[in-house]
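pasting for ref
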Amino acid sequence: MGQQTYKSDVVIIGGGIAGIASAIELLDRGVEVLMVDRDIASKFGGLAREAFGGMALCGTPQQKFNSIADGPELMFRDWTTFGEMPKDDKWPMKWAEMYAYRNYEDIYCWLRQRNVKFFPAVNWVERGDFVAGNSVPRYHIVWGTGWELVEILIHHLKNHRNSRKLTLRFEHFVSGFDVEAGELTACHGVNESNNTGFVIHANMFVAATGGINGCIEKVKENWPTDWPPPPAIILNGSHKYADGILHDSVEKLGGNITHLDQQWNYAAGIRHPEPKIADQGLSLIPPKSALWVDCYGKRIGPRPMVTGFDTTDLCHRVCEQDNGYTWQVLNKKIVRKEMSISGSEHNPSFRDKKAVKFLREILLGNDDLYQYLTTQCPEVVVAYSLAELVDKMNAVAGNSLVSYEKLRHDIQEYDDQLARGTKFHNDDQARRIVHVRQWKGDKVRTLKAQQVLDKKAMPLVAMREYIISRKSMGGVQTDDHSRVLDKGGNAIKNLYAIGEMAGFGGGGSSGNRSLEGTFLSGCILSGRIAARSIGGVVIP
């Protein structure tokens, strides 16, 4: 079979949420679109299909309903402070500003017009630790998770009034670009369903293949230089095709790749019990009432590790630990009430919009999740005594590092703190729990002064956790039209980059930290901006 040739006004390389949003916007303008994606058709939507579906938004009806005073000025200040963004980093700063001031109209309203619904409660994440984070709750969750978001937008895409101008090609791997007379004219690759080559001629090219964090080797190669070395084991929580191959192709064209050391990983990954790729992990949303200990069973401190304040700091601190892993020690009651696994797969009641079951899980605890973690995950252990728990922890690790005396001492010291009552709490973790419970969205998910060795909360549970790779916050540098820039700051003709490929805009719009929830929404914003720019050039 010979090489297949395609032609289109615009080719979008990548079928994730950024590409889908861009395609819808282009069809709105009557532009002919060819979308190619390396995955199979049933996986259309990329990593967004597997995401929990949270978005950082401000000025929404949900915030007003919850009496949250927020606006673009506050969001922009929080964003740039938390991200530690230098003011002379022109394009990331520009994209941060655009997000803060345009997220309501260009993301929230755009989604609502397409019947995407958001859960009424607004979550308060990334509150900040030594650096201020979200000043107010602004984490909005799509009712139905990222799965529902993808399904709705794909429906609008395929049923668009201009759908005749849309062509979808799956299992098509774009490996590079073609240049003639100094101008980008085509891209090429392999149809992996039949192992035949193809070439696509187009007027405009939109790169939307995600980041590099699905390739652990590249994650380590681009590890922050001012951090401790990366641990030997980093679990993979990204998309298998987020491999950075198209980054290399863009760079060969002269594109500027920036800030790849700015990564969004998580500190509480556990091994997937049924991995589909090497070292695949599950990203836990760890309980605030669990004790975070090192490989020896000693509580990490003197400042304890507590989730919900600074994800990047947690990752940095894990990298400081011997052997590159940690444990969380807790009990059944804490797991049932506070534990979650990020993503659509492990939140079926929320994904499938089963409101009664979801509310029951929130109020009474999630027994299904407890059973899954304790029966299916090989590095989660259960015991009815601390001595038994330590033995099982050491058996999982294949060593005898966890000390019963160290673990018993630190747990008992913490439990004794809780027993004195909140007005006598002199432990940073205990004080933080009191603080987070003042927000109703956290109060319903966080136990009050829950002791670890509480006999009524047994059995004990321990989870061995690793850094898990998730998002690239750096990428292809783009201007405020999503046009790819060369190292001199000049736009490369006919070439755009969007979504994670572009570091969610500008080659790194988040800086060193994200306010969380800026990724799906950043994909939508950058995809729409690219389409608007293209629509002003391409004549239908």
